[in-house]
Amino acid sequence: MSTLVNHTFDVEKLRKDFPILSREVNGKPLIYFDNGATAQKPQSVIDAVNRYYSYENSNIHRGVHTLSQEATSAYEEARRKIQKYIGAQLSEEVLFTKGTTDGINLVAQSFGKHFLKVGDEVVISAMEHHSNIVPWQMICEEKGAKLRIIPIDDQGDLIMDEFKQMLNSKTKLLSITHISNTLGTVNPVKEMIDLAHEKNVPVLIDGAQAVPHQKIDVRALDCDFYAFSMHKMFGPTGVGILYGKKEWLDQLPPYQGGGDMIKTVTFEKTTYNELPHKFEAGTPNIAGGIASAAAVDYLNELDWEAVRAHEKELLDYASDQLKTIEGLRFIGEAKVKASVISFVVEGTHAYDLGVIMDKMGVAVRTGHHCTQPLMERFGILGTVRVSFAFYNTKAEIDTFIKALNRAIKMLR
Fold first, then answer.
1. For residue 240, which of 105, 62, 391 has the smallest C-alpha distance?
2. Range of the domain at 373
3. What is the pTM (predicted TM-score) of this model?
4. Which tens digit of pLDDT belongs to each residue from 157-186?
5. Which residue of the set 11, 134, 281, 370 is catalytic?
6. What is the pLDDT of residue 260?
7. Are residues 170 and 232 located together in one domain of the fold?
8. How far apart are CA 332 and CA 111, in angstroms?
9. Tell me, what CATH number does 32's domain have?
10. Is 223 a catalytic residue?
């Protein structure tokens, strides 16, 4: 369990819950600013994985013996905890997937094959991760549909007037990121969902970057689908969640075939299982699913108002420090941002900066961040990205700034 008590926010106490934060890299204390790629795990999540493999290891849903029953109960309890955490009405609206990418592909294939036809349109934005671009390109090409792109301005905000004009009788789906993994832009998804629904257009939200920074309420948003990854919200890798309204999931055909997603199979015909199992073919990541419940338990102990305030303080503090560096250019200065900063430094390459800072124990992300069309929009090849979590501190930012300045001096 977390060392947080009475919903207070004490970052130093909280850091003790994450064993990796006490290690050294290249002889220096680890400073982990790559939370946008994956978040670190509290001991309670690590213990949950170990406990399953040590005492409960068995396949689920199929066995009558004690281990199978215990594992099935724990796995389905995790589903119910996630349902409650995201505000879903029904547990069968919560599908276990391999991650956000898998969830988006599920909707693209199932929804696309069932509903898209020649001349239809799917709307995404210019800031999307490749995971929310390529699946739609594939299904649109297969079906003869058109992919339309909401443009962004120089600050990294969506141009909403153009989005409104895109919605028409041909629009069959809007798929939009909640928070940009590269820019940190927090999109006005509730407004966009409402506008889309006025045109009877269903909406998929890519929530991969939103779930680490805020509590999500899918019913308040009124989205039709919401996809995210547990590893970004301090849970295990290889597990994702796709929320879908029951009325939509009931209409969609299965994404994959195999065990557990069927009721009966003959060589002549197969009858599919009920929700959610219709979309969960094969043996899942059982340990990861069960450990996801531990991540949700941990997050439920946080005071999310305090978390938001702390992360906003980190964002503002780091931004102010970075502004003092000559030749540094921010990529993404949206009106509303999560604690993510991307930048380039004149006369240097992002990769070189990242390698040198790693020698000083500072972990940042460099490259195009799986958003190559966005890089093209800003006329660059890649950026340095620092992404903060609630366990990061101002002292770490001070060390990062020193490391960055040293790296720049070495490269110029």
1. 105
2. 11-39+303-411
3. 0.94
4. 999 999 999 999 999 999 999 999 999 999
5. 370
6. 64
7. yes
8. 32
9. 3.90.1150.10
10. no
